[in-house]
Amino acid sequence: MAGFKSAFPLPGKNGVLAKSQESQQKIMSERRKTAATAHAEMFINGPAKELMKKDQRGSILKCNSELLAILRQAFEAAGLVWRQPTALECVYLEGFDGHEFSSKSPYMEAHPLHRMEEDDTTLNRHALRILVTPLVLGYGDSFGENYGKSRAWAKAVVWLDE
Q1: Region class of 144: left (phi > 0), else alpha (psi between -120 and 50), else beta
Q2: How does pLDDT run across 33-87, given as a tens digit for each residue?
Q3: Residue 105 in contact with residue 152, Cβ under 8 Å?
Q4: Would 130 disulfide with which of 44, 63, 109, 159, CB 3.0-4.6 Å?
């Protein structure tokens, strides 16, 4: 049986949508249809079965097909709402190996205990000692494109040598 989570997998790292977007969407749509069918069958064969009249075969078949249509629409709507084509990557201290601090960096900021002012450059070129919070990079956009380009979703917070 296809599970609900398999119908809505999270994107992976590097090459998230290796196939064309159209074929990827077709695959996901098929997964959602399979999951909707499995959930409809579980409902129909579960306790709800006792509520259906056994002598009205045609009516039951109509209810089953209507339930399946409703669940497929719900799964498709959920797929659109929860679609997350952006891939995320956390960069830890090893990822900053050899880098020095820069107050103008779009990827890092000094820990608040360093008490740096907005345009303060006194700690520039100091070595990074501890990574308090990792850098979070996002790849791709809301259209499922531009996976070669990253942008910082959250800057790394670093503790510096003084």
Answers
A1: left
A2: 898 889 888 888 888 777 776 666 667 778 888 888 999 888 888 876 666 667 7
A3: no
A4: 159
pLDDT value at residue 81: 66
Spatial contact of 152 and 135, defined as CB atoms under 8 Å apart: yes
- Residue 108's closest CA among 80, 85, 136, 86? 136
59 in Cβ contact with 27 (< 8 Å): no
Q: Which of 104, 99, 100 is nearest to 119 (CA)?
A: 104
Start-to-end C-alpha separation, the chain: 58
Cα–Cα dist 69/62, whole Å: 11
**Torsion over CA: 146, 147, 151, 152 (sign):** positive
What pTM, to 2 d.p., does this model score? 0.49
β-pairing verdict for 156-160 and 87-91: unpaired
DSSP secondary structure of 86-103: -EEEEE-GGGGTT-B--T
Helix (H, G, I), strand (E, B) or coil at 46: coil
Retrieve residue 149's tokens: 């380009």
Q: How far apart are alpha carbons 146 and 148 in whole angstroms?
A: 5
Are 64 and 25 a contacting pair, CB within 8 Å? no
